[in-house]
Design a protein that fits this description.
This protein is an alpha/beta fold. The two termini are 46 Å apart. It is built from 22 helices and 7 strands. Helix 19 links the parallel strand 2 and strand 3. The protein is 65% helix and 7% strand. The chain has a 7-stranded mixed β-sheet.
């Protein structure tokens, strides 16, 4: 019992209440460091993955990556930031552009890819941190086990979040500052080595043209190889998700500061991507990059040990291990933010999903599984990581293209979208493991979401009931009497039918002409919405008193109005239905996905779950 209470402690907080540290805002450059632990930490393995993908073409292919970063991804996410100042990101943009069930399903699919991105960020970062640890010359032989160290780091990560993660930005600022400083030192040392050994440039140039011929073929092949380097674009979606943490006087100021964040991060990363690609390609022998090689997954660390000594190299390793571990923390924070943000609003998450600790255990378990499947191999996970990153960037580019109103910007953004679509498709074709993992996440999310929505479908999903003046006036005439509602289908309503139903109801139930009877019509709205606020309108049609509303789900709306009447009048209201001549299974499906069905028993179940006291529970009649 104690363990259950501890795991579900978050559920004791009222919905919408934030912890004090979640309310804190910071200067944009400090928030940039929080995204930077994910974005900048890729320097630990990006140059090695680039060489494995492109060989001596690595600097040219990295130049293509930089151009795409600055002139494609950055403009797209500047628009995403302007459209989602509260950190909703590109997924929320697409949800607005494609409403109803189509948009919900699309969001669930994107959540699958986002989960792939964040989970692989955790596993790949932990694996690369382990790689730096086991290859350090001071590491005892007994601890040089890549898999064990990776799983240990993931366990520590989960333990931190189970305990509670605080002061994340302060830690991130220190880690990023030290890591970029150390990378700057290693980069300068590498450049000095190239200056002192000028023959390395002609040797590289000779190898480049010998293998690939002309400038045109070199650049063309670099374009084709670009998808293999695309994980270097990993920081943009995180950059817009953290926008609520940016200090500003208003939303306009937040958007402006977010654009500064994105621009600065992209420029810093572009400089380091080019510099590290050049020095690692020029100074590290090609066999060292391959699996089992001493520079595999740790090219910059190899240069730090090689040219600045094992002491400095160990400091660099420690800094890399820490920032990579914190990159996993950033990914975990992203998962804990993005999953509860969308799924509960769709009715597609169980109640315990509001608590962070059970989710942490689930995510750590998934990360363990992925690590075991990939054997804690950094290179093997690059494709899966790139798939998640590219799908999110592609969805963002498509969203801003659709949202653009003018012709020229839309054409330009459409061209950028084609670039990312091409890159995504090529990456999936060449490294399908990313799509396979994403499909597993997508299937799991959709399946569990549908099960959860079915289980929660009879919750009282109406967040509030509001009556207009006419409805209040009609009900005021019967405030001291038992109110009786007839559930009425607005598509078949007419004055004649209402009159006949009124007479029949009074005859069957022995009601006097003075007993107040109201007809309640519910027009179906967006049935994909799980929660709704009910606005009830009143009108007179001849002698019939009509209440009407629009809602995503009929049964819950009727139950909500009955409960509102019981609270406001103090009398238990009654509601009257006709049986529906439809297969029960069909009715269940219609209720879950279309908001209608055999309304009588469903209304009774909503009332039963909402009101435990039978004496206060509104009465349901069926004939």
């Amino acid at each position: 019992m104690f363990i259950t209470d501890w795991l579900l402690a978050d559920l004791e907080l009222p919905k919408g209440v934030q912890r004090p540290e979640e309310d804190a805002e910071h200067p944009w450059w400090r928030v940039m460091c929080l995204t930077g632990v994910d974005y900048f930490s890729t320097l630990g393995y990006q140059s090695g993955i680039a060489f494995l993908a492109a060989g001596v073409l690595s600097p040219v292919a990295t130049l293509v990556l930089v151009l795409v970063t600055l002139f494609a991804a950055l403009p797209v996410y500047r628009r995403v930031a302007a459209a989602s100042p509260n950190g909703q990101g590109s997924i929320a943009m697409l949800e607005k552009l494609f409403p109803a069930w189509g948009g919900k399903v699309f969001v669930l699919v994107l959540l699958g890819f986002a989960t792939t991105d964040f989970i692989i960020t955790m596993t790949l970062s932990a694996a690369d941190a382990a790689d730096h640890f086991v290859h350090n010359p001071y590491t005892p032989h007994v601890l040089q086990n890549q898999m064990a160290v990776t799983l240990f780091l993931l366990t520590i990560l989960g333990g931190i979040f189970l305990k509670g993660f605080r002061e994340a930005i302060n830690v991130a600022v220190g880690l990023v500052a030290v890591y970029l400083l150390l990378n700057s030192i290693v980069t300068v040392a590498g450049v000095l080595q190239i200056i002192q050994h000028p023959q390395v440039f002609p040797a590289w140039k000779h190898a480049l043209f010998t293998q690939h011929g002309s400038f045109l073929s070199i650049f063309g092949l670099s374009l084709l190889l670009f998808p293999r380097l695309a994980l270097g674009l990993s920081g943009f979606e995180t950059g817009v998700v953290v926008m609520p943490l940016i200090r500003s006087m208003n939303l306009g100021g937040r958007i402006k500061n977010a654009k500064h964040l994105l621009m600065t991060a992209a420029l810093i990363m572009s400089v380091f991507l080019m510099a590290t690609s050049i020095i690692t390609t020029f100074l590290i022998p090609a066999p060292y990059f391959k699996e089992g090689g001493i520079a595999n997954g740790r090219a910059m660390a190899y240069l730090a040990h090689q040219y600045l000594g094992n002491g400095f190299g160990t400091v660099y390793d420690i800094s890399t291990i820490l920032i990579l571990a914190f990159a996993g923390a950033s990914a975990m924070a992203g998962l804990l933010n993005i999953i509860p943000r969308y799924l509960p609003g769709f009715g597609m998450a169980p109640e315990w999903a509001r608590a962070s600790r059970p989710l942490v255990l689930v995510f750590v378990g998934v990360a363990f599984t992925v690590t075991l499947l990939f054997n804690a191999d950094v290179d093997a996970q690059g494709g899966a990581y790139a798939t998640g990153v590219l799908v999110l960037i592609t969805s963002a580019s498509c969203a801003v293209t659709i949202a653009a109103r003018r012709g020229l910007p839309r054409l330009t953004l459409g061209f950028l979208s084609l670039i990312f679509i091409y890159t995504t498709l090529v990456n999936i074709y060449e490294r399908p493991e990313g799509l396979k993992i994403s499909c597993i996440f997508i299937f799991t999310i959709i399946f569990m979401s549908l099960v959860s929505r079915a289980v929660r479908s009879t919750e009282l999903r109406i967040t509030g009931v509001e009556l207009d003046d006419e409805a209040q006036s009609l009900l005021a005439d019967a405030c001291d009497q038992t109110i009786r509602l007839i559930a009425w289908n607005p598509r078949s309503s007419s004055r004649k039918n209402c009159d006949e139903a009124d007479v029949e109801l009074r005859r069957l139930n022995g009601l006097s002409p003075e007993d107040p009877i109201f007809f309640f019509e519910v027009e179906r709205g967006d049935t994909s919405d799980f929660t709704d606020h009910l606005l009830v309108h009143g009108r007179m049609e001849g002698s019939s008193r009509i209440l009407s509303a629009k809602s995503a789900v009929v049964a819950n709306s009727i139950a909500a109005l009955l409960l509102h009447l019981e609270r406001t009048t103090g009398c238990v209201p009654h509601v009257y239905f006709h049986w529906t001549d439809v297969n029960p299974v069909t009715n269940i499906m219609r209720f879950i996905f279309l908001g209608e069905g055999d309304t009588a028993p469903l209304t009774h179940e909503v009332l039963r779950r909402a009101i435990k006291d039978e004496l206060r529970r509104p009465v349901v009649h069926v004939s």
